[in-house]
Amino acid sequence: MNNIFNPVYRKDYIQGYSRGLNPNIDFDTNQSEGYNYGFRQGREDYESMNGKIIHGIPQLIVTNKVLEDFLLAGMLGMSINSDGYTAYQIDIIQKWYQSGVEKYDAKQSDYLLNILEKNGIELS
After folding, report:
1. What are the extents of the domains in the chain?
2. 115 contact partners, CB below 8 Å, separation of at least 6
């Protein structure tokens, strides 16, 4: 791996990483070293949340944002809807949700819900 502080390498790495997160894009060996390394890292991150691509592309894609939403739902003591996710994805989601549940504080949750309500934000 080259120096990640090199702006050209970093740009190629980030481009490869973001494309690696897309399960519909194939690996292109005719790219730079930074792109290829970023693509492999992005693909590993995608597969760690959604399962191996060789097993099929799920209906719903789990991202860090989705996992953070489930963590927050656990912290607020909210129920979750896992329809459309595969068994592999549900295992990952469950770990994040459970982590949020362990941090659940009813007083904090009520305080946050009151603030959201005052600002016209409703949580379902």
Report:
1. 7-51, 64-118
2. none
